[in-house]
């Protein structure tokens, strides 16, 4: 539909390993709130990426994302916070 948020998820497998990439798009007719949601998630992702270095825990990364989301009036659905990937599509985080 013209007001939807579209997520494109691409998965590849090579030599027994899996790679996965996802990108969200806001269609032109989407409302301001849809655009704001997608922009906030993008900002949270990059805030988290910027803090990654040796010694930073998954908890630190999650806290960064959650703090940014909540500062914009959103919440994090903790049941969908990611997964490991390697020889299986959904592996435990390490």
From TrEMBL:
SUPFAM superfamilies found in the cross-reference section: Creatinase/aminopeptidase (SSF55920)
Alphabetically ordered keywords of this record: Aminopeptidase, Hydrolase, Protease
**Ranges for the Peptidase M24 domain?**
2-91
Tagged with keyword Magnesium = no
GO MF: initiator methionyl aminopeptidase activity; metalloaminopeptidase activity
Q: What is its EC number?
A: 3.4.11.18
One GO cellular component term of this record is: cytosol
Keyword Protease on this protein? yes
Q: What is this protein called?
A: Methionine aminopeptidase
Which major enzyme category is it? hydrolase
Note the InterPro entries from the entry.
Creatinase/aminopeptidase-like (IPR036005), Pept_M24 (IPR000994), Pept_M24_MAP (IPR001714)
